[in-house]
Amino acid sequence: MKYATIATTYWTLAAGAGLLLAATGTDLALAERLPTPTAALAGLLPLPVFLVLAAALAAVLAGTAGRFVAESRMDGGAGRTLSGLRLVFAGAVASGILGLLTLTAGLLAFIGYLPLALVMAPFHEGMRDSLVNTVDASLVVQLIVVVGVLLWGAAAREHLRRHPVPVPAWARPDAAARWGRWAVVVAVVPPLAYALTRFVWMFYPLGFDREFWEVAQAEGSLLAGVWLGAFAVVGAVLTVGLVQRWGENVPGWVPVIGGRRVPPAAAIVPATFVSIVVTPAGISMLRQAAEGGGLATEIVENWAAAGPTFLWPVWGLALGAATLAYALRRAGERRASVDAETRVPAL
Questions:
Q1: CA 146 to CA 140: how far, in whole Å?
Q2: Among 73, 95, 227, 234, which has the highest number of CB atoms less than 10 A from its own CB?
Q3: Closest alpha carbon to 76 in 9, 151, 16, 163
Q4: Are the CB atoms for 42 and 101 separated by under 8 Å?
């Protein structure tokens, strides 16, 4: 239980840090640099309350991961299996709440722009300054949460693989294939809508103030939007792969690896990461629009700038469902393969 042990230590330290910061308050030097996640849902809470709540959620994640480790050393049994399912559910809920509380659109923007910023930074002073200014305490906290949630997810997956549980009807491969296709259809619409607006801006100010558009076009700043739009299109194509044969077997025309099976984690991990980041990012955009006063009027006048981001929660949830369906199908194939091997008599 490698991942479970790491996740236990990780979230125990996180819970302790949250309680320490809540208890010491402004007396702790670091408290002056604490992020105030006003754009996230945590901004609705007083900082001490948020820290205590975050520490409690971290403790749940640490406790469930620690229980994974303990159960791996126990004998099998129906009672232990039921307990394992409850642990996975409790940890999943805690992960979801913590992500919704802390993550914002800033993290998604950082991830999207990072490759471009790293390439351009050596040649563009403004890009260097922007990159440095983006990395603040709030971003670090968000990265800590995302890494920790992924670690806990790996621990839960490791636990379920060691201790299989009965699969309900909706989670069987044939059922997952059906509702997974619908999830993919929904999941590709938001990124393509976002990309369409950014591509159109290269020659027409669709849903965008013309004066701002002309200035941005002259400065070349529209290229950043095209970059993110291209990333969104790539993401949509890869999402389609969750229900296509080439999402399970590398096409034969691909050099070196053509024809090989796609490791499930190669699709599940990045898709899960995107769904974790995109969902709260969209919620933070909706919250800012609802509380922004004059910002709502600006959004109506420049609907293509922020409008597609309001679909991000739908994107994240649909992508998460599509990823779950893919994982269930691949796990079902693995179980079927093991069963087939067991039934073949030794020669």
A1: 10
A2: 95
A3: 163
A4: yes
Nearest to 115 by CA among 255, 256, 224, 277: 224
Dmax over CA atoms of the chain, in Å, equals 78
Q: What is the pTM of this model?
A: 0.85
Query: How far from 216 is each of 68, 140, 151, 196, 221, CA to CA, in Å?
Result: 53, 30, 40, 17, 5
CA angle 214, 218, 224 (to 5 degrees): 95
Under 8 Å between Cβ of 213 and 175? no
What b/e readout covers 191-204, taking b as 16+ CB neighbours within 10 angstroms? Answer: bbbbbbbbbebeee
Q: 58 near 50, Cβ under 8 Å?
A: no
Give the pair of three-digit tokens for residue 207: 């849903």
Q: How far apart are CA 132 and CA 69, in angstroms?
A: 40
Q: Helix (H) and strand (E) counts for the chain?
A: 13, 0
- Angle at CA of residue 257, ends 251 and 262, nearest 5°: 65
CB atoms within 10 A of CB 103: 29
For residue range 118-173, what is the model confidence (pLDDT) as tens digits?
A: 777 676 666 667 666 777 777 888 999 999 999 999 999 888 888 777 778 898 99
Q: How far apart are CA 109 and CA 98, in angstroms?
A: 20
Per-residue three-class SS string for 286-345 = HHHHHHCCHHHHHHHHCHHHHHHHHHHHHHHHHHHHHHHHHHHHHHHHHHHHHHHHHHCC
Domain ranges of the chain: 2-166, 170-343
* Of 103, 65, 78, 14, residue with least CA distance to 283: 103
The residues facing 261 across adjacent strands are 249
d(CA 137, CA 37): 10
How many CB atoms neighbour CB 256 within 10 A? 6
pLDDT digit string, tens, across residues 299-339:
777 888 888 989 999 999 999 999 999 999 998 776 655 55
